Amino acid sequence: MSKYNRVLITGAAGALGRQLRVSGLKLAPQIRLTDRFPSADLAAHEEDRVAELADFGAVLDAVRGCDAIVHLGGQAIEGTWDSVLNSSIVGTYNVYEAARQCGVKRIVYASSIHAVGYYERTQTIDASAPTRPDSLYGVSKAYAENLSRYYFDKFGIETVCLRIGSCFPEPTDRRHLITWLSYRDFRHLVEVCLDAPRVGHMISFATSANSQSFWDNRLASVLGYAPQDNADTYRDAVFARTEQGDPDDPAVRFQGGSFCAAGHFEDPA
Amino acid sequence: MSKYNRVLITGAAGALGRQLRVSGLKLAPQIRLTDRFPSADLAAHEEDRVAELADFGAVLDAVRGCDAIVHLGGQAIEGTWDSVLNSSIVGTYNVYEAARQCGVKRIVYASSIHAVGYYERTQTIDASAPTRPDSLYGVSKAYAENLSRYYFDKFGIETVCLRIGSCFPEPTDRRHLITWLSYRDFRHLVEVCLDAPRVGHMISFATSANSQSFWDNRLASVLGYAPQDNADTYRDAVFARTEQGDPDDPAVRFQGGSFCAAGHFEDPA
Amino acid sequence: MSKYNRVLITGAAGALGRQLRVSGLKLAPQIRLTDRFPSADLAAHEEDRVAELADFGAVLDAVRGCDAIVHLGGQAIEGTWDSVLNSSIVGTYNVYEAARQCGVKRIVYASSIHAVGYYERTQTIDASAPTRPDSLYGVSKAYAENLSRYYFDKFGIETVCLRIGSCFPEPTDRRHLITWLSYRDFRHLVEVCLDAPRVGHMISFATSANSQSFWDNRLASVLGYAPQDNADTYRDAVFARTEQGDPDDPAVRFQGGSFCAAGHFEDPA
Amino acid sequence: MSKYNRVLITGAAGALGRQLRVSGLKLAPQIRLTDRFPSADLAAHEEDRVAELADFGAVLDAVRGCDAIVHLGGQAIEGTWDSVLNSSIVGTYNVYEAARQCGVKRIVYASSIHAVGYYERTQTIDASAPTRPDSLYGVSKAYAENLSRYYFDKFGIETVCLRIGSCFPEPTDRRHLITWLSYRDFRHLVEVCLDAPRVGHMISFATSANSQSFWDNRLASVLGYAPQDNADTYRDAVFARTEQGDPDDPAVRFQGGSFCAAGHFEDPA
Amino acid sequence: MSKYNRVLITGAAGALGRQLRVSGLKLAPQIRLTDRFPSADLAAHEEDRVAELADFGAVLDAVRGCDAIVHLGGQAIEGTWDSVLNSSIVGTYNVYEAARQCGVKRIVYASSIHAVGYYERTQTIDASAPTRPDSLYGVSKAYAENLSRYYFDKFGIETVCLRIGSCFPEPTDRRHLITWLSYRDFRHLVEVCLDAPRVGHMISFATSANSQSFWDNRLASVLGYAPQDNADTYRDAVFARTEQGDPDDPAVRFQGGSFCAAGHFEDPA
Amino acid sequence: MSKYNRVLITGAAGALGRQLRVSGLKLAPQIRLTDRFPSADLAAHEEDRVAELADFGAVLDAVRGCDAIVHLGGQAIEGTWDSVLNSSIVGTYNVYEAARQCGVKRIVYASSIHAVGYYERTQTIDASAPTRPDSLYGVSKAYAENLSRYYFDKFGIETVCLRIGSCFPEPTDRRHLITWLSYRDFRHLVEVCLDAPRVGHMISFATSANSQSFWDNRLASVLGYAPQDNADTYRDAVFARTEQGDPDDPAVRFQGGSFCAAGHFEDPA
């Protein structure tokens, strides 16, 4: 029923990548996985390509023959400049340039709310707000959003940038009550991003239907994303385990949380 | 309980007009129907006047004695210039000028999303966005929105312009999953437009509570429109019967759908 | 579980103040009440201080030893200039200046929608819209919003200004169908205002989840306020008892309702 | 030097049309004039076609062979519905449809500030503000702006809609100090509209560089319109001859001036 | 030539008040002055009334018989709460209530940029930005803006609130290069505020035509204020005498300058 | 008079870098130049460091001892990915990280309008519009704007990003009439960026005072940039030499001009 014959998932061996392989979810008749680590337990419709994103030739091999890409790979938290540079900046260029050469039509990109982490928690922003990254990691996410905009405007490759909040089994701190994205909602969101007749270049915040929110996601309302989980289910448990925190602590003041409180990654602690 | 003694329904013999006559819905103690075709099966509180909207005298006769109008009449899809001109442009002038002469207080006008059909599907607009009609039909809808604004600003006649999406028994293509308005929600919406203490001049998008949307309807939130249907109920059936489509096809790219893909109506095909 | 040791409630003997003392709601281990009238039936964790808000020394005594304040006191409807001046303008200054001297961290302030009562009912506003008070009472509310902004910007005292709609046991007129705030939702809202890790200076509209609304509250979405009541429950009863009203009556035209229709309070009627 | 071979001017015998024929202004090597009245004193590069705009065949003849059109024809002030309908609504359709059939690339259209005449004088609007016509004349101008938008979005015909203020030899009342467009600035503006490499569909307010203004014209800043006249030159003379007026008179309150104070054109005075 | 018979100037003995009495400026045939101090050298068309603004009876006497008021009186810089309360909060209420009782049509009010002093210098705001006062003085200015809005919305008294920057003979520090208002431009601005046919309720920033600015004044463009002075004339002199300052000093960071760096006025230094 | 002791200019041997060395312009008592090519004719207050921006150690040496940086270095037009990556992406990281380690307070960064090149020419944007790069070069400029925002939000290093238009001796095509920045205005703009008491993180468009414009620069109005040149001086000469162009050519349609019409840099032509 999918219009895609083969979808490539980068970062397939990571926590989010594995979620896209759960039974019942079938993004396309054929799925190709790629990661620097091999994936386990391949299903019949899955194939695996171990590759470094920084290696253009390997990326090109992985992309060739695919109609769409769910690009989850690259640095997943703050890291050294070299790591961010190679896996996220160079790696994402490699994915887009390979996609252009191979005629890929649509990419779902795992951006992050750390692209806008320096907005204050008392602000409500939508996808048109200027980016304010809170880390080199966040800078690389904003860069990829711009790169994908360029590949859409010039070459017509559609992208949905998902600014993923906190995608974990369950919320474990008070900020997660605002930013949590359940695995179930994540899978649904990737599906609707692939299914929508047209996405152009779009940025969507990606959280569950939490009562608290920093983000107004109406600019992505054409996607029809209908989250089913709400972090409030865990509210009492989280309140019991955690403190309210000092409102002037950068980790409490800004949307990016602890990323805003951290110093330069490579400085001695 | 209605504050109106007699409500006039234009286009009463059409699909939407007939929906306002279903049992259980009573907009006023007396209902007058008008259309170029006669209406069947009149109830005790209904009377019928066959009239062409382009005939001012006939329209004046139909309007006289009514407190409010639900103006559904006129060209319902793209047509020749002559048809659009006479039934929608002249016809709607006749309705408003007759309303002014007869002291009508409020009009609910069936505008259309084709008044804004040239926005891209990836845009989310609200009622303050400049009109971008996708057809002569859409131009006539934008004209009527302006005409009614004028009659409110100068003469105080209140109007709600309903930008009706796709009002059919059920959604039958993928765009309908976004634009569908169920008959039940249409009836409820007309009721709240008549019941609201004050509407001034207002534009409201008119769809059911579909998960996908192009439109942010918060500027009409005073109406209290609470749709109960969601096109997603039909999603799997629609997906099974239809293709995703080419995202660069104007029918997929723009909110107006196939109206944007069509050429000039009178050109040889 | 609260991070506050002692919360002060001003206006504690009034209708809203009493709602914050219902069983099951515990804003802090210790609650101090203050009002010009004594409160009845003190619980073990409650103490009471009778005081006039216009008396700075009395206010300072009431504030000393508290971590947070729910400031409900002062003129609750339109009154004479002297009354507004003393209880609301001077009284609120006294509360904030005492809070500064005593190191209070957060204040929940009962502002009112009469601070923006002169917007038309057909407009939808959010908390960034310029204030347009409809009464001296409303002027005093806008003043307090500015005063609290100043105390946050210069001295770091956090405030949530709740623009309370119509907080009564149930809606009794058609405007209440839009503006009603149930007691249950009021209590929940005060709780989340105290619980949120950071509120900075924030303005939140305060109504139940009514179908009709004048207000877009997304700028306060970080609070996670999840109202459970909807005035529509009372719609049929209210419609049966009331008239629709003249849309050009200031009481119907403007959001502030009858406050906009009233003349100067001290003029002979 | 012009890229156009032949430019058509409609309404050529009117006051504005004659301004485009003054010596020194040469919009194209060949100019064709059309009006219901003949033009006098044709220059060597001018030809004249007497035609009614309501006559499609005559309009088609006038348009054939032209590259661009300056469309000044049609009702120039408020008139009867029949006059507005025929000369402005039907007439402008005829011009655009003829332009489509003949491959015309660009049209400069004389819209009017009466398309937005019901904004208050104390408001500053730009070209994205919803239209609020103050007359049937103004409704026809808003209609033509929509029609031209449609012909651009579907057929690629570029248009600049000039919302002309008060284009007279000099300002004669206090409102003209705000709305005046000198003949010199009008001619320059038409030139830049024809010269600009790309205009798409654009709306530009058209006044001289008056100190007072209702309009923020920055959305048309790509045109490079650089007015040289300022109504303030006439301020003392105008003040000497006129009264300030009652600020609550609709003619003083609204941008459209006396158009807003007038009743229905066809009513007995 | 003025439409006013008698204009009242409050704060007439202060620096700004004296500027409105210079030769050549004639706001009305009769001028009444009022201040807590007497004015010297009365011209033939001037009369003087010594009065405290906090004394309603005295204010009423001063206002009676006047058509318009230029309200400059009250606390001119930060002061004690009692002083701000009496001269600015109570005093301005007295002026507006007296104006209502006496049928005054228009008031020009000397507000201050300290009503918005807590915006950062790197922000550009217009008159629709929420107020952010930087002092009790600034709170009283924001209060008066709200009070005058109320008196316009309910009673129709027009007001222009002038958010005066730094009105001195010449700029003396680097912030003045941004905020300076020359005496000449101040006088011109008061004139156009009185002359404009309609001002409704309007807020205008009041500076000279300085190259640097924090404020976008286009919402007041109907006034036709055309400043002639530019603080840049003094740039080299000011740079020679002053330091650039620490960009993180509140006096440099915020628009309100030193008002933002000061503590509570009544605290021991 | 400058508050800086030593300013570093990167890209000092390029066309723009040389403009900052003209006689009469003195940004600081000491100027250090760096480029991959040596600079000629050093003045007494100048020193030169030949360095590759991609070499962090060399950059650190160049930055050490400087108070401010004018960062002009890196790829100046579209280039291969490797060139953009090394000179602009890695190079600019090196400059900011060295600045952080060395305590530099302010950086003036030569961004480019190619960061927003895919806006249509008929749009007017300001600095808050989302970036839409038209080339890998433009992507690298948007990246640097984000990187500098991060270094300001986390480490307090101030930056003005100058989105430079077409900085050449004179305009040579019709698009330059819109985008031209004269050398004189460029020098003045760098001066005011260094002189302003506080710039925080700011984006300023950088063109001369051309009559035509795509950009509304009011968000940078605190800089006090007062351009003196206007491309219109060259209008007749440019029109004589050039064609108007096809409005649908991407080079004419988009703000980025020929960058938008070009394909992938490394593809065979």
Protein architecture, described:
Chains A, B, C, D, E, F: This is Putative epimerase/dehydratase. Chains A, B, C, D, E, F: Keywords: NAD, Oxidoreductase. Chains A, B, C, D, E, F: InterPro entries: Epimerase_deHydtase (IPR001509), NAD(P)-bd_dom_sf (IPR036291). Chains A, B, C, D, E, F: GO terms for molecular function: oxidoreductase activity. The structure is a homohexamer of 269-residue chains. Chain A has one domain: NAD(P)-binding Rossmann-like Domain (Rossmann fold, 3-Layer(aba) Sandwich), CATH 3.40.50. Chain A is an alpha/beta fold. In chain A, the strands form 2 sheets. In chain A, strands 3-2-1-4-5-6-9 form a 7-stranded parallel beta sheet, sandwiched between helices. In chain A, α2 packs across α3. The model of chain A has no long low-confidence stretch (mean pLDDT 96). Chain A is built from 9 helices and 9 strands. In chain A, α3 links the parallel β4 and β5. Chains A and F meet through α3 and α4 of A and α3 and α4 of F.
